[in-house]
TrEMBL record:
Signal peptide range in chain numbering: none
Protein name listed in UniProt: PRA1 family protein
GO CC annotations, alphabetized: Golgi apparatus; membrane
Transmembrane segments: 69-101, 113-133, 139-159
InterPro entries: Prenylated_rab_accept_PRA1 (IPR004895)
Lineage: Eukaryota, Fungi, Dikarya, Ascomycota, Pezizomycotina
Keywords carried by this UniProt record: Membrane, Transmembrane, Transmembrane helix
Membrane topology: Multi-pass membrane protein
The organism's place on the tree of life at top rank: Eukaryota
Family classification: Belongs to the PRA1 family.
């Protein structure tokens, strides 16, 4: 019987590792961050004359301002969490609960009058955070985040003119 590692794709692709994600620092991710004077240059804002021009602006600006758009998405995410306090509390509770249970390193929690196993702690965490999570309505927050970031990012990319240097580089 063939295993998964015998598959040609499995031999060509390296296995996924979270360590590789942590190897790159935030400075390398945001090394292409453009200055805010360039990002908020109102003199270069104009309505595209055609759909073809809007598409060209989108293609250029989405790659040129990609790090700036990532920051816009992060800011909108933080705003979404700050306006939905219950969702923010639920996320903190899940992270804190998993961190606290992980600090036990597989040992039971001894309260003096009772011993609670790790699986019981995870069950209690799920029983508390799952109803809170549904009450916090994370789906509407996610839909709002997708819509707001799409309007902001795609709107900016469509209305921001390309720099004059890019016109000369395309004609070569």
């Amino acid at each position: 019987m063939a295993t998964l590692l015998d598959h040609p794709v499995a031999t060509e692709c390296p296995p996924f590792s979270f360590d590789a994600l942590g190897a790159q620092s935030l400075t390398t991710h945001f090394s292409s961050l453009k200055p805010f004077s360039d990002f908020f240059d109102i003199k270069r804002m104009s309505r595209p004359s055609s759909l073809l021009e809007a598409q060209g602006r989108l293609n250029y600006n989405l790659s040129y301002f990609s790090s700036n758009y990532a920051i816009v998405f992060i800011i909108l995410s933080i705003y979404s969490l700050l306006t939905n306090i219950l969702l923010f509390f639920d996320i903190l509770l899940v992270i804190g609960g998993i961190w606290g249970i992980g600090k036990l390193k597989g040992r039971d929690l001894d309260l003096g009058f009772a011993r609670v196993s790790v699986s019981q702690l995870y069950t209690v965490l799920i029983c508390i955070t799952l109803p809170l999570g549904f009450r916090a309505n994370p789906f509407s927050a996610a839909i709002w985040l997708i819509g707001a970031s799409s309007v902001c990012i795609l709107g900016h990319a469509a209305f921001m003119e390309k720099p004059i240097e890019s016109h000369f580089s395309e004609e070569v």
